[in-house]
Amino acid sequence: MSRNTIPSGMFWSPGDGQPSGWREGVRAEVDGHGRIEGIVPVAEGGRFHRHTRSRIVVPGIANLHSHAFQRAMAGMAERQTRGRQDAEADSFWTWRETMYHFAARLGPDTLYAVAAQLYAEMLEAGYTTVCEFHYLHHAPDGRPYSDPAAMSQALVAAARDTGIRMTLLPVLYMSAGFDGAALGERQRRFGHDVDAYLHLIDCLCEDAGDMLHVGCALHSLRAVPAQAMRTVLAALPPAMPVHIHIAEQVAEVEDCVALRGARPVQWLLDNAEVDARWTLVHATHLDAAEVAGIARSGATVAICPTTEANLGDGLFPLREFLDAGGRWGIGSDSHISVSPVEELRWLEYGQRLVTRRRNIAVAADTPSVGETLLRGVAASAASSSGHAIGTLEAGQVADAVVLDSAAPQLAGADAEDLLDRWIFSGNRNLVDEVHVGGQRVVAGGHHRDREAIAARYRDALAALMPD
């Protein structure tokens, strides 16, 4: 017997076989493990209830790249630190110094409070799964906590308590650059040797279940020596997700060419069995061969438009990647924005600014930009996270977002333009309810524990700020 349902309405799902993706007058029946048993009609006397059209239900969205602690420093790195004529004017690398300084203040308790606030915000925005790329492993001086997994467990607890689905990605971080230099003082809390790292993964896997999967994150090619990468990959379970930062900065590409003899993505494709379990984060600076190579591999690119814009990284070659048949998703990364709508909108707008054309992210069978974008994030969600997510159909987890059908932005919308209206009609959050594993965690646009979570967050920020 089903323990729960996602209430009836108009359901959109890219994997349901319907030409438009829309089904009217249906509900999702949910089993005891939070998976959809079936999508069934809601009928009365052989006719659909008229009120069922008033609920607009879409699949929950996966956030493929998150550094939770950075939510607490959003807006704190927007003052110029170098002169405009300085050869080392403000950039990703100067921002990183600010990030290191802030990261040094966090412990398990403050990390829990910050992550819980972030995850509640994600849920309210329509993210139902987070891939947490976690590298704050040790105490600020680099010494392990008495429980070496204490910082990881703080994130697991925050996800559990807020109700978001998580793929925890503990990060291997071993060197300060492609030359193998030792970690700097502010990087020591990130570091592991290979044996300690694999032990951490083993320990975290003991807690894995329906709501928590564990994957592997290689921080970057510059932070993981080639032999260490090979050793770790050989030791992992064959289906475990693998994520890596790559080709985010031009300087990174230049250093890789100088010291490894190839561009970062090309080197990775040549030296690892990159396939559908891999997620390449950013991959901003690609040549044509790399675009084609990623697409052939089946790997996902996690694009983080608001963070990449905030850091001045550059623009991912989206149209070329779509033409090559590449798989992609989105992440909010540093969380200067926590909104899938904004990530998707600016993914498209960036392409428009470069090409001076409109409606770039479309396909021959999908002329709607909004629908193309939502199909893209759905198609990558399961392989990148390891969870059965992305669509509303039998066997998938019951993660769903209910939009506010009474919102003025959706007035008069129909199946052809409803998704475009959601993505491109302004900045009001149109999420009304969110269900994760069939459990409602957001109602009326508010997380069930919003006030208590915010109070803990305010106390944590007060403790983190300098005197």
UniProtKB/TrEMBL annotation:
The keyword Zinc applies. It comes from Marilutibacter maris. PANTHER family: AMIDOHYDROLASE-RELATED DOMAIN-CONTAINING PROTEIN, GUANINE DEAMINASE. The keyword Cell membrane does not apply. SUPFAM superfamilies: Composite domain of metallo-dependent hydrolases (SSF51338), Metallo-dependent hydrolases (SSF51556). Its cofactor is Zn(2+). It comes from the Bacteria. Residues 1-23 are annotated as: Disordered. GO terms for molecular function: deaminase activity; metal ion binding. This is N-formimino-L-glutamate deiminase. GO terms for cellular component: cytosol. It holds the Pfam family Amidohydro_1. Residues 56-441 form the Amidohydrolase-related domain. InterPro entries: Amidohydro-rel, HutF, Metal-dep_hydrolase_composite, Metal_Hydrolase, Metallo-dep_hydrolases. Keywords: Hydrolase, Metal-binding, Zinc.
